[in-house]
């Protein structure tokens, strides 16, 4: 498993959990040294215990040398980063460098599998690079390439891998398919489907899936904004449409936009792929536009309430990660909100159950950091609920009222009920919620 980031570490550890001997490779020596001691670089519930358990059993090893771990290898998974370039396309330099190293050092048949999220045509590029390196060596060792996109949700990645809704594999030979079937057999014993297809279709499936989910989110945010204009309530609308089996209830919650390591990057990459093929994905371009605009909705509500002047005001923020059960702040809506608050002269104090360290790396001393959620509320002019952690679901209204300067709440995830907030004397702003009639 080349790449010991989120996807590589979770995938490698879960394979080891089923009895597969796994070598996780990474160029970061410091990261590898920590992993050898069972210290993991990310927050994912249950992962650390599983890593330690498989380290102790000898099924999971960590190294910086791919060459040293190619002997007797049946499959090499490429799980390195594919960060977006400025034009939105995926940067394949790390993926192709792994392919070069495989081509330089392989001495027997193996399947080279792209696990990273990569554009259509990447597996073909991987094959070309390996053949090129073999040609330089004057060798011709048979191999196959495959595409095996990941569908892991941060915060529930172990469950997603061990009990997958589906496993997608793109192959071009029966030999490669046989190896992949054997590798994934423990995960499909309980009728979890493994779907084989051609490689380009597998590569496109991942982008299409994430783009569809992003589309649902942006659509609901558009409807929520309309609800506020016409006097409807988005939670009622959500329940109404979610009861339709053709629509369902997942990913139809209004809020302040999506973030994270996947949706923003994958939407951009799919738009770029279409543009390169002279086709405009107009729906996805709108999805991206709506999402960028939605990240400013909470700030706009704040400015409207304070009539455009928040200089010297103190805002408490609950939640810094882009979603619960992770410390990931990549593309998090909170970054847009904080930067706008600071730019308007406000002071910000924030609390998150696990993402404080990550926030310090991204924001430094530009904001204050609270030791707990209620500590953040002392003398606050308003509370902003940004990430829907379980810690924040039940409020102690008496404590809020005593600690805060103003009884004012901006709920970016519609976690609270407007009528209940009103009952306890709080001014409440949600996303697409019907105002309480007084």
CATH level-two architecture of the largest domain: 3-Layer(aba) Sandwich
Q: Quote the CATH topology of the largest domain.
A: Rossmann fold
**Major sheet:** 6 strands, parallel
Detail the poorly predicted runs: none
Overall 3D form: elongated
The sequence of SSEs as H and E is HEHHEEHEHEHEHEHHHHHEHEHEEHEHE
Q: Return Rg in Å.
A: 24 Å
Description:
The protein is of the alpha/beta class and 438 residues long. It folds into 3 domains: 183 residues, Rossmann fold; 87 residues, NAD(P)-binding Rossmann-like Domain (Rossmann fold, 3-Layer(aba) Sandwich), CATH 3.40.50; 135 residues, NAD(P)-binding Rossmann-like Domain (Rossmann fold), CATH 3.40.50.720. Helix content is 42%, strand content 12%. It contains 16 helices and 13 strands. The strands form 4 sheets. A 6-stranded parallel sheet has the order 10-9-8-11-12-13. A 3-stranded parallel sheet has the order 3-4-5, with helices on both faces. The mean pLDDT is 94.
